[in-house]
Design brief:
Order of helices and strands of chain A: EEEHEEHEHHHEHEHEEHHEEH
Number of helices of chain B: 12
Largest interface: A-B, 48 and 52 residues
Strand order of the largest sheet of chain B: 7-8-9-3-10-11-13-12
Order of helices and strands of chain B: EEEHEEEHEHHHHHEHEHEEHHEEH
Radius of gyration of chain B: 21 Å
Number of domains of chain B: 2
CATH superfamily of chain A: P-loop containing nucleotide triphosphate hydrolases
CATH superfamily of the largest domain in chain B: P-loop containing nucleotide triphosphate hydrolases
Distance between the termini of chain B: 28 Å
Oligomer: heterodimer
Shape of chain B: globular
Largest sheet of chain B: 8 strands, mixed
Largest sheet of chain A: 8 strands, mixed
CATH topology of chain A: Rossmann fold
Number of helices of chain A: 10
CATH class of the largest domain in chain B: Alpha Beta
CATH class of chain A: Alpha Beta
Shape of chain A: globular
Radius of gyration of chain A: 21 Å
Number of strands of chain B: 13
Structural class of chain B: alpha/beta
Helix content of chain B: 25-40%
């Protein structure tokens, strides 16, 4: 079976020039990531800001080349793939529907652009496809004549989804698609994404910092920390029995609306992850509540067991 | 009918604020007692931030607030001149904002920004103010305070900046602290740390805390009292225990149904959602502002809406009786 997405030992570095004295530093945003995502699944990627989850998304969409390693989409390497071909396979939905839509174009033209760029359909047929897709995401033909500025945040995100789906791609990369939206609108968009996936057999890579949202939509979850996946498991397993101390802390910090529970003590201390200065040994050890002597010196291996990946020295002992 | 808070630090009655053809705040009444956290919750545009800014008298120039009263420690703020308000602001009443990077001045050190407040309100020397700043940085859990005082905002992480903002707000021992979405820009793990800190300080110092948020999880875990805002009005208020045990306004219920809760909502099942968008209210609007999005709306909802008592401190703005959910199920 070909996987929808296959990421093989991918690294991505950025050169950062410090404001002081012009010192160049290397930021390893993605630091050796390997995973494969079966067709029709939803991989949720969670982690704090700066953990490399958006860089990973851009690598998978082919918007950035990896420093080393390889990304395969639908069994084919992105390396050297034609842009138009790539666009037919994989499409993005971004966080902020205020900046991801051209403010000077009408909605129908924004959604038609991917079809026009492919150039293989007559215009009348393109317009038909656009109207079908807009209707499917709940945008009326009257709204299609408007400009993005005349739409609400939720309506704009529907337009962004229509634009992503108008070429009938197999894979959609959603980078924080509901973070800029109000909760009532967030629920509408999550429901829409779930319906579309069922109907069209889509595969999602779903990036979010909101674990409750990921638990709701994902079938598999990858937890990233400073450029690496430190735990990956089917969604039920990960939420029921988180194995990595970082996953445990993330889950503990979810504030469910339950007045009987106070504010949790996540036990992470005050150290803050800095991608320009990755600690030796286990990269999580300065914040880890279960740290022991070996952690500062030894980088933990990937432990794969029962469909779960954990990168922690405690998992080796268990 | 409105719950009586004994001897409140802050009491607002019938606050109204208009921006041109939109009435952003439409008759808000609320009170915060000493040692109490009162959460103001609602979606963007519901008027929660404008309510906070009105209390601090920080509305944009030319925008007027009207109210029966805005009483702080028994003194009506409406009658004060700008100079008199400025004397209170940052001293006995302080405010922290969502994005600590934009509310700190990038061109000045942490120490200089923190000490300015104290020098100004307490006529202290720079030396005394710096000592006070160091003391408060330690209090908000920042180690090596001497080094931090000499640093600039960009040298700190988001979580540290928000700690600095909290420390700065506490420089003059305020009675009232207004926090507008203080953890929205932070990562979840840092959010939990900052909220724990706020809660601890609030208890130790007996602060009256007015906490503004869009996150019902934050409300449930932090507040004693909650006011749910919709389209410029408080549509439901009560103790957190009352409101979360028996959310009665259809909007409050709808909001609670919208949030996925790990372990409770089923993966893949559709979430509850509220159709439509938050409306803009023209001045003089009559009737329930939620009626266009409410599945239970009837023609009478276009007439003026009663404030109903749900028992205890709990009341809500809707024609439905308190037990409508049970009546509907029967």
């Amino acid at each position: 079976m070909t996987h929808a997405i296959e990421v093989r030992n991918v690294y991505r570095e950025f050169q950062q020039r410090s404001a002081m004295a012009g010192v160049r530093r290397t930021v390893r945003a993605v630091d050796g990531v390997t995973f494969s995502l079966p067709s029709g699944d939803v991989l949720g990627v969670v982690g704090e800001s700066g953990c490399g989850k958006s860089t990973l998304a851009r690598l998978i969409m082919g918007l950035l080349p990896p420093t080393s390693g390889e990304v395969l989409v639908d069994g084919r390497s992105l390396n050297g793939m034609d842009r138009r071909e790539r666009a037919r396979l994989i499409q993005p939905v971004f966080q902020d529907p205020y900046s991801s839509l051209n403010p000077r174009q009408r909605i129908r033209d924004i959604v038609r652009l991917p079809l026009a760029a492919q150039g293989d359909l007559p215009k009348a047929r393109q317009v038909e496809r656009v109207m079908e897709m807009l209707a499917r995401v709940g945008i009326s033909s009257e709204m299609a004549e408007r400009m993005p500025g005349q739409l609400s945040g939720g309506q704009r995100q529907r337009v962004a989804i229509a634009r992503a789906l108008v070429l009938h791609p197999r894979i959609v990369v959603c980078d924080e698609p509901t973070s800029a939206l109000d909760v009532s609108v967030q629920a509408q968009i999550l429901n829409l994404l779930a319906e579309l996936r069922r109907e069209l057999g889509l595969t999602y890579l779903f990036i979010s910092h909101n674990l409750a949202v990921v638990e709701h939509i994902a079938t598999e979850v990858a937890v990233m920390y400073l450029g690496r996946i430190v735990e990956q498991a089917p969604v039920q397993d990960l939420f029921r029995t988180p194995a990595h101390p970082y996953t445990q802390a993330l889950l503990a910090s979810v504030l469910t609306p339950d007045p009987a529970l106070g504010i949790p003590d996540v036990g992470l201390g005050d150290a803050y992850p800095d991608p320009t200065n990755i600690p030796p040994g286990c990269r999580f050890h300065p914040r880890c509540p279960s740290v022991f002597a070996k952690c500062a010196a030894t980088m933990p291996d990937n432990i794969r067991k029962d469909g779960r990946l954990v990168e922690c020295l405690l998992a080796v002992q268990a | 009918m409105t719950p009586v808070v004994p001897d409140p630090v802050l009491s607002v009655a019938d606050l109204r604020v208009s921006f041109g053809q939109t009435e952003a705040v439409r008759g808000v009444t609320l009170a915060v007692a000493r040692g109490e956290t009162h959460c103001l919750v609602g979606e963007s545009g519901c008027g929660k931030s404008v309510t906070a800014l009105s209390v601090m008298n920080l509305l944009p120039r030319g925008i007027a607030r009207t109210a029966d009263h805005i009483r702080f420690q028994g003194q009506d703020l409406l009658g004060l001149s700008e100079r008199q308000t400025a004397r209170l602001r940052g001293d006995k009443m302080a405010m922290i904002f969502q994005e600590p990077m934009t509310s700190l001045n990038p061109a000045y050190t942490i120490g200089s920004q923190m000490s300015e407040v104290f020098e100004r309100h307490r006529r202290a020397t720079r030396r005394q103010a710096m000592d006070r700043a160091a003391e408060l940085l330690a209090r908000v859990g920042i180690t090596a305070s001497g080094m931090r005082l000499a640093q600039y905002p960009h040298q700190l992480s988001g979580g540290l900046r928000q700690r600095v903002m909290i420390a700065m707000a506490l420089m003059c021992d305020p009675e009232l602290l207004i926090a507008d979405e203080p953890t929205t820009a932070l990562d979840v793990t840092v959010q939990a740390q900052i909220l724990r800190l706020l809660q601890k300080l609030q208890q130790e110092l007996g602060l009256a805390l007015l906490l503004i948020t869009h996150d019902l999880g934050v409300v449930a875990r932090m507040a004693q009292r909650v006011s749910v805002m919709y389209a410029g009005e408080v549509v439901e208020t009560g103790t957190v225990a009352e409101v979360f045990a028996a959310p009665t306004h259809p909007y409050t219920r709808g909001l609670l149904d919208c949030i996925p809760v790990p372990g409770k909502t089923q993966t893949g099942e559709p979430l509850g959602s509220i159709p439509g968008v938050v409306p803009r209210m023209p001045p003089g609007f009559v009737g329930c502002a939620f009626r266009d999005r409410c599945t239970l709306a009837v023609p009478e909802c276009a007439e003026s809406v009663p404030l109903r008592d749900a028992g205890g401190d709990h009341c809500y703005l809707c024609r439905l009786p308190p037990d409508w959910k049970r009546a509907a199920a029967a």
